[in-house]
Design brief:
Shape: elongated
Helix content: 10-25%
Largest sheet: 8 strands, antiparallel, barrel
Strand order of the largest sheet: 7-8-9-10-11-12-13-14
Strand content: 25-35%
Number of helices: 10
Number of strands: 21
Distance between the termini: 45 Å
Length: 438
């Protein structure tokens, strides 16, 4: 364990020195914690626990064996719940010893906002798991080192003396999990969070910990909704630049770091991604305040699978374009090889997908673009096009809002009228322009 302490300390000191802790307005230039892996732990009444107990005996330590250890990155805050899962307080924890005492004094009908199991596979392929508070207490006491992890707190959460909100956005990946694509975590300095998804807010906690030599992220959302259950997780994490990948069983979730912009923008001005700002809602909520539109149209592609209903993509409201676009892509990604074999949908389709092209679009080093909802598209027409801004043409433009299984809400930019367009339009008849929130 002494060897692990030296390795962890040296690694984190190196990261601290090389990357620093400065917050910058451009998240793609912001420094971030690099490397690190995560794992999971022990089970008291199991054979694995007995094995662990043997490895932590005095004899094992004398023979130089290294027992597994759980080390949390402090400070952290955990919510306390009663027997009915109602939050009744918050515990602020600064050390393993304090954490252990809290676990010991927790009544049998109370619980903490920790997602179990926490487990890891060691170098010899042995798997250890922690499945409840009692087992976690034992795992903490198996650590022989002091809390010597030196880390950059500004990377994990913004410093208390810098009132700068920052978010981790669920990003699109062609190979990873996209169920909650478009969701954003607003992280507080004390480890509490708000998850924004489909214009709804979900509260919870989030903290990092080391399990043996692997870095983990533990997320717990309040409530018993399906979304809360899905996001109550503990997983190994890979950090790289402004990206983080959470590894949970056979799936991976990709998150990207975003900072709240500190500068005011006006309608018609250039946005941070070199687009054109066309909407300002006046304050930050759900992780954004402004919307900008790209400066060029997408290629002519089909909107999607004809004669297919994507009911989750029928939102008109401002702020729903990203969610709509995500639902369109998730639907087609879940079809069996749609892009190479569109016959799984219809022999009328050619396998192209406008929404996917939108998610893969890049401009000004930003990659978080999507198709506008109908109301967002209408704002582009009213705030930009009729003022001869944005280099838009007098064509019909797509929204991400489905009308029914065959048609989509569009706007004729020559007249401003709402139109209904087939998901498979005539060639070059319909244009598309992507947008992004910031």
């Amino acid at each position: 364990m002494e060897n692990f302490s030296k390795i962890a300390t040296a690694l984190l000191l190196f990261i601290f020195i090389v990357y620093g802790c400065e917050f910058q307005d451009n998240p793609h230039e912001a420094t971030n914690l690099e490397t690190g892996e995560f794992g999971k732990l022990i089970k008291k009444d199991s054979e694995l626990y007995n094995t662990l107990e043997n490895t932590t005996s005095d004899k094992a330590l004398e023979e130089g064996e290294t027992p597994p250890c759980v080390e949390f990155i402090y400070p952290l805050a955990l919510k306390v719940y009663d027997s009915n899962r109602n939050p009744i307080g918050v515990q602020y924890i600064m050390s393993d010893n304090q954490f252990s005492k809290i676990l010991e004094n927790l009544s049998s009908d109370q619980s903490l906002s920790i997602s179990y199991p926490i487990s890891t596979t060691l170098a010899d392929s042995t798997v250890y798991s922690v499945n409840n508070n009692s087992e976690l207490d034992i795992a903490l006491k198996n650590c022989t080192r002091e809390d010597i992890i030196v880390y950059c707190n500004g990377i994990i959460a913004p410093p208390l003396d810098k009132p700068l909100d920052y978010y981790w956005r669920v990003s699109y990946s062609q190979i990873n999990e996209n169920t909650y694509l478009s969701g954003r975590f607003l992280i507080s300095s004390d480890g509490t969070l708000v998850f924004y998804f489909n214009n709804q807010e979900y509260n919870g906690t989030w903290f990092f910990l080391f399990v043996d030599d692997k870095l983990h992220l533990n997320i717990k959302l309040d409530g018993e909704s399906e979304l809360a259950k899905s996001w109550s997780i503990d997983g190994e994490v890979e950090m790289g630049g402004t990206n983080m990948t959470i590894k949970i069983l056979n799936k991976k979730i990709k998150l990207e770091l975003l900072y709240e912009t500190k500068y005011p923008y006006k309608i018609g001005s250039a946005g941070p991604a070199n687009g054109i700002v066309f909407y300002d809602k006046g304050q930050y909520s759900f992780g954004w305040r402004y919307i900008e539109v790209a400066t060029k149209d997408l290629k002519d592609l089909e909107w999607g699978c004809v004669a297919s209903s994507i009911s989750k993509a029928r939102n008109n409201e401002i702020g729903s374009g990203y969610y709509n676009t995500a639902q369109i892509v998730i639907y087609h990604d879940n079809l069996t090889n749609y892009y190479a074999n569109p016959m799984v949908c219809s022999n009328l389709n050619n396998g192209t997908l406008l929404a996917k092209d939108a998610l893969l679009f890049n401009q000004g080093i930003y990659n978080d673009w999507f198709l506008p909802s109908y109301n967002e598209l209408e704002l582009i027409y009213k705030n930009l096009h009729i003022k001869n801004l944005g280099n838009l043409t007098e064509s019909i433009y797509w929204s991400s809002t489905e009308i029914d299984q065959n048609t989509v809400a569009t706007i004729n930019f020559k007249t401003g009228e709402k139109t209904f367009t087939s998901k498979i339009p005539g060639k070059s008849n319909t244009k598309a322009r992507v947008i992004r929130y910031f």
